[in-house]
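Here is the promised in-class demo. Please do not try to memorize the tokens; focus on the logic of going from shape to residues.
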């Protein structure tokens, strides 16, 4: 009953309303003279410095779903759930230079989305359209998963009710508020709220890792309890250590997830909002600090085992909602007021990424579908207005995913999303370094990788939910004819096939002398920095920056 959680509800509501008010106030923070421009509404004026970018990108990548799902995986499967920690460490060295190049060429040409870059680099509206649609489709379930995090908290506080309407009404209200201040303030809203969200999460986790081990008998007792639970599990892959059977899946899932992380449109949006290349370099060096916190968050799953936590019932009879493990742990082990703070950290942790994701998806639609195919002469003000409206539609779609789909299926959809977004790697990431691939070959590679990936995902059942298809991303190698029980991450196989097909078709199209289009970028575009005199006139620099001259084009 909600009356038993009244203190938690009050603390949660006060903090939630506080950050919502900050979201509306954010429209006046670093306010430009005119918000009717995608550079301002969708990228915050491309003016964020080191601290703002650190909190924004960190708040974007480490979400409410991370807070509840990673410990839930540790609670249910053990070491296999720890894959999120290594992948958020190895990714930063991988993208250190890649993102600097993307920022520079986008800064020089006024690109707002990765599809903008692909359109110019490969002179292919079709390829750009595929990249845009891929980004939108992969982002939608990711937004829905933020709702899963909020729903886990609300369910623990007893405010979701039993009927379908009562269960989802609080989430609908929360996202209506989010939609309102995102519409008004754009990227400035999540950038400002990220400060509060990250501060709360750091406080909650540091208190938890100091307080809980003392209450539960120390770390030795915690790991002993986890080992005893997994020793009794019928699944041989469960355990506090990996075994020979699940190591390949673990490695490929971690690597594939790392490669996918900064291909997501919302990750790129946070990077493009940075002021200069140095901001990106400093952030790629400092963001692994979040991974330290993520490792501590993951250990909450083992603490929940030691505390004897039982997940709350799921949406259907006979099932449990494993995402409630952390909220129930805090409810049982902490005073009500601190549990309320922890719940607010999770709830607010959903608002920041959900806002950025909806903005990123809206920018893709506006730039690469609306302007490219529906209204080529759209003004900056019209672009901004369309993007605002689209961001509302995206949020409605995310809420619909939760209302009409089994939440567990939404989680599986996110795993599918990682496989989908990986298919943009050849065009976006490799395209920043080479134009060797033919534009037609990149389309063929995308189709091959996407087709194989969807086929592999379709073959995977979910034993827990008794669903025959799209039940995860671990593909049995035995289905490829190998005599083994090992599995592999679908995304890695699909993107490798994508690359092989793109390379072979490139050779074939070159041999046939098929036109490759004109590269709209130049080598020095990839090293442009703040203050470059040849920056596109459409790129703004924030309210306080003076306009800079644009060098004349050289004579033909």
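The designed amino acids, position by position:
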């Amino acid at each position: 009953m909600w009356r038993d959680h009244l203190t938690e509800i009050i603390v949660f509501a006060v903090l939630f309303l506080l950050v919502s008010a900050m979201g509306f106030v954010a429209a006046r923070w670093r306010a430009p003279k005119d918000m009717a421009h995608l550079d301002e509404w969708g990228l915050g004026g491309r003016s964020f410095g080191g601290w703002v970018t650190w909190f924004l990108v960190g708040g974007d990548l480490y979400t409410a779903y991370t807070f509840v799902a990673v410990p839930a995986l540790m609670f249910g499967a053990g070491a296999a759930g720890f894959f999120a920690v290594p992948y958020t460490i190895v990714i930063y060295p991988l993208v250190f230079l890649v993102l600097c190049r993307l920022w520079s060429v986008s800064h020089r040409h006024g690109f707002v989305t990765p599809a903008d870059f692909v359109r110019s680099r490969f002179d292919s509206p079709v390829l750009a359209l595929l990249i845009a649609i891929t980004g939108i489709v992969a982002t939608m379930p990711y937004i829905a998963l933020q709702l899963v995090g909020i729903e886990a908290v609300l369910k623990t506080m007893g405010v979701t009710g039993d009927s379908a309407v009562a269960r989802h009404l609080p989430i609908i209200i929360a996202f209506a508020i989010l939609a309102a201040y995102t519409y008004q303030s754009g990227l400035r809203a999540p950038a400002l709220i990220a400060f509060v969200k990250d501060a709360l999460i750091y406080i909650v986790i540091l208190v938890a890792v100091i307080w809980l081990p003392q209450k539960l008998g120390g770390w030795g007792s915690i790991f002993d309890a986890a080992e005893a639970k997994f020793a009794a599990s019928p699944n041989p892959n469960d355990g506090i250590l990996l075994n020979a059977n699940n190591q390949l899946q673990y490695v490929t899932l971690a690597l594939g997830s790392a490669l996918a992380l900064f291909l997501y449109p919302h990750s790129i949006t946070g990077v493009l909002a940075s002021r200069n290349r140095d901001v990106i370099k400093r952030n790629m060096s400092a963001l692994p600090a979040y991974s330290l916190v993520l490792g501590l968050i993951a250990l909450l799953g083992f603490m929940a085992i030691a505390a004897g936590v039982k997940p709350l019932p799921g949406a259907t009879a006979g099932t449990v909602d494993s995402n409630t493990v952390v909220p129930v742990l805090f409810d049982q082990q902490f005073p009500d007021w601190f549990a309320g703070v922890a719940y607010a950290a999770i709830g607010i942790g959903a608002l920041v990424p959900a806002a950025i994701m909806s903005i990123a998806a809206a920018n893709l639609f506006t730039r690469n579908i609306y302007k490219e195919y529906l209204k080529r002469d759209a003004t900056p003000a019209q672009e901004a207005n369309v993007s605002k409206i689209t961001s509302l539609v995206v949020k409605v779609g995310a809420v619909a995913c939760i209302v009409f789909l089994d939440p567990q299926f939404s989680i599986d959809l996110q795993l599918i999303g990682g496989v989908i977004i990986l298919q943009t790697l050849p065009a976006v990431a490799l395209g920043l370094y080479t134009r060797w691939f033919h534009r037609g070959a990149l389309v063929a590679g995308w189709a091959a990788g996407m087709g194989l990936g969807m086929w592999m995902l379709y073959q995977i059942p979910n034993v827990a939910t008794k669903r025959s298809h799209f039940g995860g991303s671990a593909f049995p190698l035995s289905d490829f004819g190998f005599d083994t029980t090992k599995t592999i991450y679908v995304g890695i196989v699909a993107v490798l096939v994508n690359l092989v097909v793109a390379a072979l078709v490139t050779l074939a199209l070159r041999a046939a002398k098929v036109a490759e289009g004109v590269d709209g970028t130049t080598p020095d575009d990839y090293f442009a920095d703040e203050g470059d005199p040849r920056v596109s006139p459409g790129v703004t620099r924030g309210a306080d920056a003076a306009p800079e001259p644009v060098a004349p084009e050289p004579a033909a």
